[in-house]
Amino acid sequence: MLQTVRSRRGMVVAPHHLAARAGARVLEEGGNAIEAMVAAASTIAVAYPHMNALGGDNFWLIHAPGRDVVGIDACGAAAGKADLAFYAGHDSIPERGPLAALTVAGAVSGWQEALTVSRSDWGGTLPLTRLLEEAAFLAEDGIAVTRTQAANTAGKLAELKDAPGFAETYLDAGAPPREGDRLRQPRLAETLRRLGRTGLDDFYCGGLAQAIAADLSRAGSPLALADLERHQALRVAPLTATVAGHRLYNMPPPTQGLASLMLLGIYARLGIAEAEGFDFVHGLVEATKRAFRVRDRHVTDPAYMDADPASFLEDAALDAMAADIDPARALPWPEASAKGDTVWLGAIDGEGRAVSFIQSIYWEFGSGTVLDETGITWQNRGVSFSLDPGHHNVLKPFRRPFHTIQPALAQLPDGRVMVYGTMGGEGQPQTQAMLFARHVLHGQDLQEAVSAPRWLLGRTWGAAATSLRIEDRIDPAVIAALRKAGHEIEMVGPFDEVMGHAGALVWHPDGLMEGAADPRSDGQVAAF
User: Which of 51, 288, 294, 467 has the fewest beta carbons under 10 Å from its own?
Assistant: First the structure.
């Protein structure tokens, strides 16, 4: 059984052990938490290619003692050519292939903006070549294919095999790889080395950008060089809320960070005394439904929103939503839902500086389109746009897509700082709430809180089910009570990957660090 990891000098958690190790090595060499995260983020883009890539997006929450929390929004917008006329004849945006590759990849710009914070505010000095070194080596030398990559390649083969470049990159003579097979990505290795030599901005407005744009055009994507050139990561003020005396942070729209904060704000008002019983599960599920109603009606590119997201975090709004919950009966469901593939990582350095980070290509392998020259897999985040002219998230050129991904961070009144998160589409706000409620509100050990049985309301990982799926380790008496209350339940395995890959780190004022990795993943906590 996994135990909470403790140390005092530095700590990184990631859903793949090689990424955690890469980040920890940077800390050991005197790097800071941001530098460690860039090393870990680039490495996991190689080691977990079905969940994230250089062709995706990312978001950051950055904490330093005595400073305001910094948010970085590295979400790419739709192409200038991507409008309703471009997709004429389609009822919806194609889910795979080059037409699904319609938004700029912001991930590399997020690394760049975070390193600007590192150098200007934290005195970071490690060269970019060092930070990308492990990722480039692994791309060249090869990684061992994980069980989750093998399973997702096989499970989604029919819809991915014809995407440009997919078969050549991820299949073995047309067949899905087996767990443990060696996957080499030499073109991606050269791209990483080139970024180390020329700088991360080369991805958007240099020779590398020109190669990327040419590859996208040949594949049939609407993205052009001008779209890459106009992109930049945004430094933003995080959304924040006080929950039971604790200060919580998450990302503003276009992410669903609002739903995560609302969910915990509603739950904390229900007066539930302990975790794991009927009241705990029912309360969090019903809070999820109220938060998702707001998210699905209002959250989109903030330039197009009709409401101030902070207004939904005011006491009166949260009080009303909590009062709407029947403690004995379930609200009928489902409503709209989404799926996604993502990685969450956390890092803390010896100065108590902490990073909560999330990186995604949306669905498994994103659009499935792999660029010829650079070996970059491109996301399909833009399929979240609607082609209905009356929809609140209708596709428009340069509009930013709705994002399920969002990292979480909390500052506790006793001085502790907690970074936590997960992958998993609709499951992200729910799992974040479970982790925080179990560890902070109800006092569970950190690893126990991550390992404990989870549930999921809505869809994720491409599944069509919208019922309340629950891991079968939960007390049968609780399951019976939930069914009696009107919850439509589907039992799943004891450590089911549908529940996502979560993790958490906690820094204490005396310098102690605690970390927990998800037994559902290939990850670990790397500490020294």
Answer: 467
Amino acid occupying residue 489: I
Q: Does residue 169 have an active-site annotation?
A: no
Same structural domain, 243 and 223: no
What is the C-alpha to C-alpha distance for residues 484 and 480, in angstroms, rounded to an integer? 6
Query: Residue 147 — pLDDT band, cuts 50, 70, 90?
Result: very high
107 in any annotated domain: yes
> What pLDDT band is residue 255 in, cutting at 50, 70 and 90?
confident
Interval 157-197: pLDDT, tens = 999 999 999 999 999 999 999 999 999 999 999 999 999 99
Total residue count of the chain as it appears in this document: 528
Q: Which residues contact 273 (CB under 8 A, 6 or more apart)?
A: 279
Whether 261 and 219 share a structural domain: no
Of 351, 384, 417, the domain-final residue: 384
Same domain, 413 and 328: yes
Residue 297: band (very low, low, confident or very high) from pLDDT cuts 50, 70, 90: confident
User: In Å, what is the CA distance from 44 to each residue of 13, 126, 196, 380, 396?
Assistant: 11, 19, 17, 19, 32
- Assess if residue 525 is contained within a domain: no
Identify residue 48 by its one-letter amino acid code: Y
471, 299 Cβ separation under 8 angstroms: no
User: Is 394 inside a domain boundary?
Assistant: no
Pairing of strands 354-362, 455-457: unpaired
Could you tell me the pTM of the whole model?
Answer: 0.95
Residues 167 and 87 grouped into a single domain? yes
318 with 348, same domain: the answer is no
In our burial notation (b when 16+ CB lie closer than 10 A, e otherwise), range 357-384 reads: bbbbbbbbbbbbbbbbebbbbbbbbbbb
pLDDT at residue 43 is higher than 80: yes
Does the N-terminal peptide bond of residue 98 adopt cis geometry, omega within 30 degrees of 0? no
| Per-residue model confidence as pLDDT tens digits over 422-459 | 987 778 899 999 999 999 999 999 999 999 999 999 86
Looking at the fold, whether 219 and 247 belong to one and the same domain comes out as: no
Q: What is the CATH number of the domain that holds 473?
A: 1.10.246.130
Set 342, 377, 422, 466: catalytic member: 342
> Same domain, yes or no, for 368 and 429?
no
What confidence tens digit (pLDDT) does each residue in 320-346 have? 999 999 999 999 886 544 455 689 999
Each residue of 483-504: pLDDT tens digit? 999 999 999 999 998 898 999 9
Cα–Cα distance, 240 to 261 (Å, whole number): 8
Alpha-carbon span 52 to 33, nearest angstrom: 20
Q: What domain range is 200 assigned to?
A: 18-230+341-384
Backbone φ, ψ for residue 432 (5° rounding)? -55, -45
Whether residue 207 sits in one domain with residue 268: no
In angstroms, the CA 49 to CA 520 distance is 17
Assigned domain for 444 exists: yes
**What is the number of domains present in the chain?**
2
